[in-house]
Specification:
Shape: elongated
Bound molecules: SN-glycerol-3-phosphate, calcium ion
Largest sheet: 10 strands, mixed
Distance between the termini: 65 Å
Helix content: 10-25%
Strand content: 15-25%
């Protein structure tokens, strides 16, 4: 049992300032690391319990004193007994209702099939060998000592734990098949009384049978009860109502591990129910479930969980990002203060040409760590791995560097956004479908969290403290599909409004510095791009594409300000920079990564949030940012800049649009819109005609993401919209102009 982080850091508070652009708001960000805020994705109390499933059944024959001994040697907090009842009403520790799998009953009693426990007396069962089967089944774990291990009675098992547990190991027992053994609950209570453990703190009774647990609750109301769940038991049920319903008798739940998602954690923890998933045998799963805030877990390998919790470890995966043809940012997070070591190599075994980088994880950044690696070869797959220096737990990943500047190598990228809004909670299926595309890189186009929407990490928004914002980022990292996409795909993350609050303008929003701090903490953003909090930057992918990443929030005038020459979305400096990037680019495709759309009016009337003022819907709406976009649009046309694609999400439907802003019958630039991945789904709406949009495709009401392939040699760019199952809903080929 390891005290989770919170308890041990009771006294710290720190302050951080932000750089120039938001100077008007540069005030210290108060952070109190003692408070994990309102997140329900943290253990109810600081103890995370290691429950030895059937004893240390990964190392020795389940439900034998040998396996129980190993569990206690491995400092398990609880030893678990499954209970069956003999013909003469004695309780024994055994998982199955028959003796066939884990004893030599077939040999000793060949004519007593199917060897049901209830058909044998205790005396007959005590003649059985409950260990040799294990040596046959797991020869690499076989031990002489297992031969002749007996089937323990409940009383023997309890006394054994009392004797060898050094008062540390607790008891965790399951009434198995209570409908087969009438009176089983009374018998259990009788044995607990007889062995004087009924009142001990470290005692749990568990069962899949609610009836059995309610019976125990009536017999012994102080005993902590765990309601077990397999997938079918929760099917079609509202998990919040279910957790509330059982909280009158249960102290916790024991769900099958795949059932543990943020929604369940919130439902259980808001009903003060502990969550103990089963059966968790890999450290990756242990880390994944711990990141969800479980209060303990069942494992056949208690030492694996114990050794993990014993030292700081990589808690939320790894990621690479802001990749160029010679450099990359590597990111990870630990569960507490630590030094982290990254190894990077073209050799997936890390035996040759391995670069090593070490960096500290500290509370100022919520124990997130980033290192810059450069001197890399272009167009090369790099393998990397990270571990907290004192921990063996290592996470592996890979990324591709961009091809060299003149390379005409085709590229494939995926883009998407809008995750965590309007009641949508991780996991999101689209991330697995994105991985299946095996893209060169992933553009995460903003609204990567919804700081102002209720989710298990922040049940009572808006997010105010940096802990709230951090909790949101940790929440989406609980998504296995997202973690695995980041682990093997270079990522460019941009922010939009919900990283701070709906439709915010950086300079006038007090939460900006806090939201920005957390955003930069949780994505592999280069120091160069985050210097002075610019966040806008150009990345090249060979000669196929120049990707110009915008910052649509940091320099923005208030949305309700009337549009005109002194109103800006990007800030004068960024507008000039954008023009320069487009003009100088000799790449086949110029991709402008924008977090807001050009012609679909977003935000409220009189405070439009995208470029468009939407005066086609609300005549005379003086807001929007069309004045500034016209400057950019005119520049593209005047300079004859070809193959410009604005890529965004934000509108919560998918759309592909070509623009003829000067109405000369020729396309001036295009706009590719996908989403949402995990937020409210809406239907496409009317476009503001100002810049001459023509819809090539529009579809709403489904979770989706975009795929963009550029083949310079074939002078083609292909856009695809795929749904969360990877089904292609739309594909279009653009002929690229020279
Ligand atoms: O008791 C938790 C877990 O062990 C339930 O499954 O079949 O292993 O008893 P089982
Ligand atoms: Ca069990």
């Amino acid at each position: 049992m390891k005290k989770s982080l919170i308890a041990s850091l009771a006294c710290l508070s720190l302050s951080v300032t932000t750089a120039a652009p938001y100077a008007v708001l540069a005030k210290p960000i108060e952070m109190s690391v003692t408070d994990n805020g309102q997140s329900t994705l943290t253990p109810l109390n600081s103890d995370v319990a290691v429950i030895a499933h059937r004893g240390a059944s990964g190392y020795g024959p389940e439900h034998t004193l040998a396996a129980y001994k190993q569990a206690m040697t491995m400092k398990a907090d609880y030893v678990e007994f499954d209970l069956q009842m003999t013909k003469d009403g004695q309780l024994i520790a055994m998982h199955d209702e028959t003796l066939a799998r884990t004893t030599n009953a077939k040999e000793l009693y060949p004519d007593r099939a199917p060897w049901r426990v209830k058909d044998f007396t205790l005396e007959e069962i005590q003649r059985l060998d409950a260990g040799s089967w294990f040596n046959k089944a797991y020869p690499d774990q076989a031990k002489q000592a297992y031969i002749g291990q007996k089937v323990p009675t409940l009383e023997e098992a309890i006394e054994f734990v009392k004797q060898h547990g050094n008062g540390k190991a607790g008891l965790y027992m399951e009434t198995k098949a209570p409908s087969v053994y009438p009176g089983m609950e009374e018998k259990v209570i009788e044995i607990l009384k007889k062995t004087k453990v009924l009142e001990t703190e470290k005692l749990f009774l568990e069962s899949f049978s609610e009836e059995s647990l309610r019976k125990v609750h009536n017999l012994a109301p102080n005993v902590k009860l765990i309601q077990l769940y397999n997938a079918s038991m929760l099917k079609g049920k509202d998990v919040s109502q279910e957790m509330h319903r059982i909280s009158d008798y249960a102290s916790g739940v024991g769900p099958s591990k795949e059932l543990v998602v943020p929604k369940m954690m919130q439902a259980a923890h808001q009903n003060k129910l502990l969550v103990h998933p089963w059966t968790v045998n890999s450290q990756d799963d242990m880390v994944s479930l711990t990141s969800l805030g479980v209060d303990g877990l069942f494992t056949n390998y208690p030492d694996q969980f114990e050794s993990l919790l014993d030292k700081p470890y990589i808690s939320h995966g790894i990621a690479s990002g802001d990749v160029t043809d010679s450099s990359a940012i590597l990111w990870t997070r630990t569960n507490e203060k630590a030094n982290v070591q990254f190894e990077i190599s073209t050799d997936s075994t890390f035996k040759h040409d391995t670069m090593v980088k070490t960096a500290p994880a500290n509370s100022t950044n919520d124990f997130t760590v980033k290192v810059e690696v450069d001197g890399l070869k272009a167009d090369t797959t790099y393998y990397y791995r990270a571990h907290a220096v004192s921990s063996k737990y290592t996470v592996n990943g890979s990324f591709k560097t961009a091809p060299g500047e003149n390379s005409l190598k085709p590229l494939t990228m995926v883009w998407g956004g809008d995750t965590g809004g309007h009641g949508e909670i991780p996991p999101y299926k689209s991330f697995e479908a994105m991985s299946a595309v095996n893209p060169d890189f992933f553009l995460f186009s903003g609204d990567t969290i919804y700081a102002d929407s209720p989710t298990p990490a922040v049940p009572n928004p808006p997010s105010q403290t940096v802990e709230d914002f951090w909790a949101k980022y940790k929440e989406i990292r609980t998504d296995k599909g997202f973690r695995s996409l980041l682990q093997k795909t270079a990522t460019y993350a941009i922010w939009d409004d919900h990283e701070v609050t709906n439709d915010f303008s950086g300079p006038s929003q007090p939460l900006t510095p806090t939201g920005l701090h957390a955003f930069k903490n949780y994505y592999p953003i280069s120091n160069e791009r985050s210097a002075e909090d610019k966040l806008y930057h150009k990345y090249s992918w060979g000669n196929a594409m120049d990707m110009v990443i915008l910052n649509n929030r940091g320099y923005r005038s208030p949305n309700n300000q009337a549009d005109g020459p002194d109103k800006t979305m990007l800030g004068k400096e960024q507008v000039e920079w954008l023009k320069q990037q487009l003009l100088e680019s000799d790449a086949k495709v110029k991709l402008v990564a924008s977090s807001v759309p050009i012609s679909f009016p977003t935000g409220k009337a009189m405070a439009r949030d995208g470029w468009a003022n939407g005066d086609n819907v609300n005549p005379n709406d003086p807001t929007g940012f069309e004045n500034e976009f016209k400057e950019i649009s005119d520049f593209i046309i005047e300079k004859g800049i070809k193959n410009v694609f604005f890529v965004t999400t934000d509108v919560h439907f998918a759309e592909v649009i070509k623009y003829d802003a000067n109405q000369d019958g020729k396309t001036d630039y295009n706009e590719l819109i996908s989403g949402p991945i995990g937020a409210v789904k809406i239907n496409p709406g009317t476009l503001d005609p100002t810049f001459g949009p023509e819809k090539l495709y529009a579809e709403g009401n489904f979770f989706n993401f975009g795929v963009f392939r550029v083949d310079p040699a074939a002078k083609q760019a292909i856009v695809e919209i795929q749904d969360e199952n990877g089904k292609v809903h739309f594909s279009h080929t653009f002929q690229l102009e020279d």
